[in-house]
């Protein structure tokens, strides 16, 4: 690991000022991804600015009935929070489906959004990788890609975003709040992650030097009736090969409102808006659910070893929407 | 000017203060084992994937391999050495002994630290990925074998002693009195209040 400076900050302006626009400095939250990447040489910061003690560790109800989640709230506190579990249960479930109890105690909301892909080529500094070393190539396209993207990728990078939390945030129209030396700003979750295009090394729309201060969730009655389901290669403590966050409101057998987001299929948590359009106002039955999944997955461009994900996601969507419909009927 | 790459810090471990100068690259795990000779905590993968290095930080289980020592200053660290109250083993330690919750023993300090925290997290009402209904109105889930397996999944055992580990955690949870443990899921950095007794009282002092 390369040597680095370390400073701990206790207020947001101080944090932003210390990081400045230094491209060799990084904010340190829980460190569960950054420290790991520093050990392997993928990240080589000259300075760390430790933001874990910033006063951003609260979850508060907002006047409009939503929630504001501070950036240094740990995954554990987010998942255990009564209002998250009551009003956005799929978000709690998503967080609980990720990592281990130890890592959830350390990891923070802000860090979760900025974690890097677990693509093996990205993690191996002896291999080419357009995300880590722009222009060096993407060995995954011809190589090991059984858990890579089927949606929104291209010829430059097929890595997937590993977050479970992010899938819940995508489904519920989260807004990411940040602070820069020029003042505060915000980004809707749908614009937070950049399209891959030919610049897979540029992952978010955050301005240089910005500190994520929190995430807000607008009120959404439909979110109270939601589930997260994750498929992985072992029963626990593994990244998803496919996941779905779904919220559903059905009355008189018709879908009144729906939220649907996918994990482990793209470079970012994937909001399935085409599927939502097919579902809204349509009969809440397996046929419609399958048609909605197909509408979303029509854009899928699977590779030889990850084509299974198209069927997997279709089945997941049908299963989760069916289960939510049955729960409504009870 | 290049920033300093080391710092003089004081770590608080099992209630004792340990001043030392660390290269910023030093993990808490390496500081414990290589610098302070507190070797009960074990190094497995050193990548946050196996749980062998689990300790409690401010009452919460954490992997010490991904925790920078410099960033642990000012926080209360509890290792396996801090679990017993003198000669009186922690109920989780006793249950692992009584039920053979190990074979070679290498992962055991991490398993025990993790289990101590699991029992407190469950007692605090935290749901898990094995909990079907996470809504608070559903009440706390019973600590079934499935719940224990899920909550302990961050601790790997290459000997495969899982069957006995699950039994040990279940037995220790059943004997929990709610007053003699170092784990505190309610604790937070800077604002955590420690209410432990036994060794925990020494820690708080």
TrEMBL record, chain A:
PROSITE patterns: FAD_PCMH. Keywords: Oxidoreductase. Residues 1-222 form the FAD-binding PCMH-type domain. InterPro entries: CO_DH_flav_C, CO_DH_flav_C_dom_sf, Diverse_Substr_Oxidored, FAD-bd_PCMH, FAD-bd_PCMH-like_sf, FAD-bd_PCMH_sub1, FAD-bd_PCMH_sub2, Mopterin_DH_FAD-bd. SMART domains: CO_deh_flav_C. It comes from the Bacteria. Signal peptide: none annotated. This is Xanthine dehydrogenase family protein subunit M. Transmembrane segments: none annotated. PANTHER family: OXIDOREDUCTASE (PTHR42659:SF1), XANTHINE DEHYDROGENASE SUBUNIT C-RELATED (PTHR42659). It comes from Streptomyces iconiensis.
UniProtKB/TrEMBL annotation, chain B:
Residues 7-83 form the 2Fe-2S ferredoxin-type domain. Residues 174-205 are annotated as: Disordered. Keywords: Iron, Metal-binding, Oxidoreductase. Pfam families: Fer2 (PF00111), Fer2_2 (PF01799). SUPFAM superfamilies: 2Fe-2S ferredoxin-like, CO dehydrogenase ISP C-domain like. InterPro entries: 2Fe-2S-bd (IPR002888), 2Fe-2S-bd_dom_sf (IPR036884), 2Fe-2S_ferredoxin-like_sf (IPR036010), 2Fe-2S_ferredoxin-type (IPR001041), 2Fe2S_fd_BS (IPR006058), Aldehyde_Oxdr_Iron-Sulfur (IPR052914), Beta-grasp_dom_sf (IPR012675). It comes from the Bacteria. The keyword Oxidoreductase applies. PANTHER family: OXIDOREDUCTASE WITH IRON-SULFUR SUBUNIT (PTHR45331:SF2), OXIDOREDUCTASE, IRON-SULPHUR BINDING SUBUNIT-RELATED-RELATED (PTHR45331). This is 2Fe-2S iron-sulfur cluster-binding protein. It comes from Streptomyces iconiensis.
């Amino acid at each position: 690991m390369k040597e680095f400076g370390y400073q701990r900050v206790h207020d947001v302006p101080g944090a932003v000022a210390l990081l400045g626009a230094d491209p060799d400095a990084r904010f340190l939250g829980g460190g569960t991804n950054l420290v790991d990447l520093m050990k392997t040489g993928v990240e080589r910061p000259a300075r760390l600015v430790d933001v874990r003690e910033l006063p951003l560790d609260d979850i508060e109800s907002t006047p409009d009935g939503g929630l504001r989640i501070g950036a240094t709230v740990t995954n554990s506190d987010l998942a255990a929070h009564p209002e998250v579990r009551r009003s956005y249960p799929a978000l709690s479930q998503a967080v609980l489906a990720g990592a281990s109890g130890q890592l959830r105690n350390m990891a923070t909301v802000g860090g979760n959004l900025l974690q890097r892909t677990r693509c093996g080529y990205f993690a191996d500094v002896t291999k080419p990788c357009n995300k880590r070393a722009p222009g060096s190539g993407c060995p995954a396209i011809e190589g090991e890609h059984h858990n890579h993207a089927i949606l929104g990728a291209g010829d430059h990078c097929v890595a997937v975003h590993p977050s479970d939390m992010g899938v819940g945030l995508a489904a519920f129209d989260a807004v990411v709040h940040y602070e820069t030396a020029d003042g505060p700003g915000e980004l809707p979750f749908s614009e937070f992650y950049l399209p891959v295009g030919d610049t897979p090394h540029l992952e978010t729309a955050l301005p240089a030097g910005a500190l994520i201060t929190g995430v807000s969730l607008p009120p959404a009655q439909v979110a109270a009736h939601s589930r997260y389901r994750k498929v992985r290669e072992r029963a626990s403590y593994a990244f998803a090969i496919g996941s779905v966050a779904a919220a559903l409101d059905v009355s008189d057998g018709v879908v009144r409102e729906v939220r649907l987001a996918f994990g482990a299929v793209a470079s970012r948590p994937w909001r399935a808006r085409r599927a939502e359009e097919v579902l809204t106002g349509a009969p809440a039955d397996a046929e419609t659910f399958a048609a909605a999944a197909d509408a979303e997955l029509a854009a899928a461009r699977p590779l030889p070893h990850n084509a299974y994900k198209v069927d997997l996601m279709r089945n997941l969507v049908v299963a989760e929407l069916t289960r939510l419909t049955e729960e409504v009927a009870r | 000017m290049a920033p300093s790459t080391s710092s003089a810090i004081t770590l608080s471990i099992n209630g004792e203060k340990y001043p030392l100068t660390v290269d910023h690259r030093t993990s808490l795990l390496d500081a414990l084992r290589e610098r302070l000779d507190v070797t009960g905590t074990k190094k497995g993968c050193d990548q946050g994937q196996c749980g062998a290095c689990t300790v409690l930080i401010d009452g919460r289980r954490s992997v010490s391999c991904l925790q920078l020592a410099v960033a642990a200053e000012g926080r209360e660290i509890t290792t396996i050495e801090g679990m017993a109250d003198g000669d009186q083993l922690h109920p989780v330690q006793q249950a692992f002994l009584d039920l053979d919750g190990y074979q070679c023993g290498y992962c055991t300090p991490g398993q025990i630290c993790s289990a101590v925290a699991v029992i407190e997290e469950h007692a605090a009402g935290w749901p898990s990925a094995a909990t079907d209904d996470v809504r608070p109105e559903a009440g706390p889930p019973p600590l079934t074998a499935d719940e224990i397996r899920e909550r302990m999944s961050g601790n790997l055992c290459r000997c495969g002693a899982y069957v006995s580990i699950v039994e040990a955690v279940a037995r220790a949870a059943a004997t929990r009195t709610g007053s003699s443990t170092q784990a505190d899921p309610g604790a937070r950095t800077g604002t955590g209040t420690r209410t432990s007794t036994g060794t925990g009282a020494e820690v708080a002092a």
